[in-house]
Specification:
The complex is a heterodimer of chains A (441) and B (308).
Chain A lengths: L1 H23 L2 E8 L6 H22 L6 E8 L4 H11 L15 H14 L3 E2 L17 E2 L5 H16 L9 E7 L2 H4 L2 H11 L2 E7 L7 H10 L3 E5 L4 H11 L7 E3 L6 H4 L10 E4 L8 H10 L16 H24 L7 H9 L2 E2 L1 H6 L9 E2 L12 E5 L4 E3 L8 H19 L11
Parallel strand pairs in A: 1-2, 3-4, 5-6, 5-7, 7-8, 8-9
Antiparallel strand pairs in A: 9-12, 10-11, 12-13
Helix pairs in contact in A: 2-11, 2-12, 3-4, 12-13
Chain B lengths: L1 H31 L6 H23 L6 H27 L7 H23 L16 H7 L5 H23 L1 H11 L1 H6 L4 H27 L8 H12 L4 H21 L12 H12 L14
The chains are: A alpha/beta (441), B mainly alpha (308).
Protein name (chain B): Branched-chain amino acid ABC transporter permease
InterPro entries (chain B): ABC_transp_permease, BCAA_transport_permease
Pfam families (chain B): BPD_transp_2
């Protein structure tokens, strides 16, 4: 009997020890479909480097999120849709609770897995790319095109032009060139620019550039002939430096060439050399290493030789900081979800989705994270999966990006109206009944 | 009219840039009958190696980064790297495939593309680099002021380089012993072998010369758009040039380049707006296809006659 009791007690102690050990070893898995080789490797290595460094910072400095260490695995997509889907499938069951979140960093891959994420109950976060109307969370509960969408960006760019001209009414009669990558990504700008042109009375001159965009002489001759007041550069990859150089060649002022956030990185300006001086670009994150969060990464991650970037001079670059933004949003959503589902626990994708949908990065929280001014304050709700829709504008001074504005708003009522209209059409086509957000908790 | 001339001249000068890349294809095709799919990757590899050495040499030798010594030493080292790549390709890829069907060799060069791209990025990293050749890409002021025609100084410089390269290659082919051997190999491998021409040496020479052409093309394209992976896409611009000019003709590459360059720019400017624009990407291919119907061997290519 005594022996039986001892064995039972031993088993209980072992069980308790085991469970506490298991708790101490809890890990939250994040699958990273990265692209470090291939045509877009230069941007990919910076973005995923920043993202991983931030997660490493949380592990090293804080011991994880409430004690839950972050773990991750990269899967190389080469920015290719088929590989992206393969990576999605490969990563979704990894980790003790499966993949917490899928962030494809590719509009093509986003579309390819749009329906899969809902079936697998894995939230998909598309920061600054992807399907714009997915910002309507009632129709797309599993997709989060956060911070700002392409439509908000286009609207903010027009607002910036209005500011420069001394008022939105001054845009009447102006000509705005839209030099776009001839792809679904580039054409995403058309509808919103047409609406804005009708509202403010300017003319949009749309000029397509065939992929990859390494030859733009004819486009810039057309621009010279049309004499626009501004040109919006909606480019990607080699198209950007080529456009900047061609602008210089045709004498178009770089201060009036406004790039989107996929045109406004060091990778776009450095190859253009002195021609890029004065070029302006929008961004939902800024460049620079003078932020406490970056200082912490240098201290706690690079100080321990655990940094991901081979070229440390890129820490603080546009793509690197964008990766840090991805890291912040992911970690904060996990932290938020733990408040509901239990601190110190590894969560499922479904639980993390709730964290994204209730994310609130206000000024105080951004300050605590050392990221004031680094990204705009962000509040996500059941209906609004986008958030602020704001951008800052940066100007290339010949050596680095300098922030030249505060956060510039988009035309929220116009953009939101378009989002809801488009999402409703999608819901009708797919037979989706939009969620009633008043019933969500 | 001025605008038309500007588009036309700009197109012709762009065509020369395409021809620079096409030359590399022609050289290898002439000597070995292989369509070298890896030519675009070689352009990327060469340019990246050049700027890579430009970055590391000042540290190694304690020289100023913008000194002429660094430039020419980097050029020399990049050329040596291209020769080594050419020899390695002959040894590892081509030699085991002697007497295999051309399609096998072609497939091997597809594999080679990935290897070359991978080695380049593994060695020098994936960062995008600028490349300054000291020639500004701006219009000639005199033409602009007097006729309002913008012709880029850089494009003219590129045209001069291409013309010099063609002259150099023509001299090499016509007046040197190696050149005669190259032509003999191009005409008939077996006949060349039977009179004692070392096929493997010739192949190594050809790949090295193609490497040199890739280096020059890579530097010019790199100076224009930055040294980045997109340099591999320059091969896409060279394909219609080859179809038009013929795979075996050096002058054909130049003439083909001029026709493609001029026609794609004129089409983009004058036809593009009616069909939504962005036709530059596919228009040269359509033109080349139409051309194939009437002259399958290209403008200057050798007519292929089979005995029945």
């Amino acid at each position: 009997m005594k022996l039986k009791k001892t064995v039972l007690l031993g088993a209980i102690i072992a069980g308790l020890l085991g469970s506490s050990l298991a708790s101490a070893n809890e890990e939250q898995f994040i699958g990273l479909p990265s692209y470090r080789v291939g045509p877009y490797a230069a941007g990919g290595s910076g973005l995923f480097g920043g993202w991983i460094d931030y997660m490493q910072l949380v592990n090293e400095r804080d011991g994880g999120v409430n004690g839950v260490k972050l773990s991750w695995e990269e899967c190389e997509t080469e920015y290719n849709n088929a590989r992206g889907v393969e990576c999605y499938e490969r990563l979704k069951k990894k980790g003790s609770t499966g993949n917490s979140v899928f962030q494809p960093v590719s509009t093509g891959i986003t579309y390819s897995v749009l329906e899969k994420v809902a079936q697998d109950k894995i939230p998909m976060v598309t920061i600054g790319y992807g399907r714009t109307d997915a910002a309507d969370g009632r129709v797309f509960p599993w997709v989060f095109p956060m911070i700002t969408t392409y439509w908000s960006q286009a609207s903010a760019i027009v607002n910036y032009m209005g500011q420069k001209e001394g008022g939105m009414d001054k845009l009447k009669g102006k000509k705005i060139g839209l030099l776009y990558h001839d792809s679904a990504y580039g054409k995403e700008s058309h509808a919103i620019m047409d609406k804005l042109a009708a509202k403010h009375g300017f003319e949009v001159i749309k000029i397509a550039v065939a992929h990859p965009g390494n030859e733009q002489q004819s486009q810039w001759l057309q621009i010279r002939q049309a004499k626009p007041d501004y040109v919006v550069l909606w480019g990607w990859g080699v198209m950007n430096p080529t456009a900047i150089k061609a602008a210089a060649k045709t004498g178009f002022p770089r201060e009036k060439l406004i790039g989107v956030w996929w045109s406004g990185a060091e990778e776009d300006t450095i190859p253009a050399g002195p021609a890029a001086k004065g070029f302006v670009a929008a961004g939902f994150n800024v460049a620079g290493a003078n932020y406490p969060v970056i200082a912490d990464i240098k201290k706690h991650v690079y100080g321990k030789n655990k940094g991901n970037m081979e070229d440390k001079t890129r820490v603080g670059s546009v793509y690197y900081n964008r990766g840090v933004v991805h890291g912040i949003i992911t970690v904060e959503a996990i932290r938020k979800a733990q408040e509901k589902y239990g601190k110190g626990k590894a969560l499922t994708g479904e639980q993390v989705r709730w964290g994204f949908e209730n994310l609130n990065l206000d000024d105080a929280r951004l300050k605590a994270l050392g990221a004031t001014g680094f990204l705009p304050p962000l509040k996500i709700t059941c209906a609004d999966h986008e958030g602020p829709g704001k951008v800052k504008f940066q100007q290339w001074d010949g050596n680095q990006w300098k922030v030249i504005t505060d956060w510039v708003d988009s035309d929220r009522p116009l953009v939101r109206g378009m989002i809801e209209e488009s999402a409703a059409a999608y819901a009708k086509e797919k037979g989706i009944k939009p969620r009633d957000c008043s019933k969500e908790s | 009219m001025q605008f038309f001339i500007e588009v036309l001249v700009g197109g012709l000068l762009s065509g020369v840039m395409y021809a620079l890349v096409a030359l590399g294809f022609v050289l290898i095709y002439k000597a070995s009958g292989v369509f070298n799919f890896a030519q675009g990757a070689m352009v990327f590899f060469a340019a990246l190696t050049f700027v890579g050495f430009q970055e590391v040499l000042p540290g190694w030798l304690g020289l100023e980064a913008d000194s002429g010594v660094v430039f020419w030493l980097a050029f020399l080292l990049a050329f040596i790297a291209m020769i080594v790549l050419g020899i390695a390709t002959e040894r590892i890829v081509l030699r085991p495939l002697v007497n295999q069907p051309h399609i096998t060799l072609f497939m091997a060069t597809i594999g080679l593309t990935y290897v070359v791209e991978g080695i380049a990025q593994m060695t020098w990293g994936a960062n995008v680099r600028g490349l300054d050749l000291g020639i500004v890409d701006e219009p000639i002021a005199w033409l602009m002021d007097n006729y309002e025609i913008g012709v880029s100084k850089f494009d003219l410089f590129a045209a001069g380089v291409a013309a010099s390269l063609v002259a150099l290659l023509a001299l090499l082919f016509q007046y040197t012993k190696v050149g005669r051997a190259l032509r003999a190999v191009a005409d008939d491998h077996q006949a060349a072998l039977s009179i004692g021409i070392p096929l493997q040496t010739i192949w190594r020479v050809v790949w090295a010369v193609a490497g040199f052409v890739a280096l020059v093309a890579g530097m010019i394209w790199g100076a224009r758009n930055g040294v980045q992976f997109a340099l591999t896409f320059t091969a896409l611009k060279a394909l219609p040039v080859l179809i038009l000019g013929g795979f075996t003709s050096v002058p054909g590459a130049i003439v083909g380049g001029l026709i493609i360059g001029a026609s794609e720019k004129l089409a983009e400017v004058y036809v593009g707006p009616f069909v939504g624009g962005g036709i530059e990407g596919w228009f040269p291919y359509m033109l080349a296809l139409a051309f194939l119907l009437f002259r399958p061997e290209g403008l200057f290519g050798e007519k292929h006659i089979d005995r029945v």
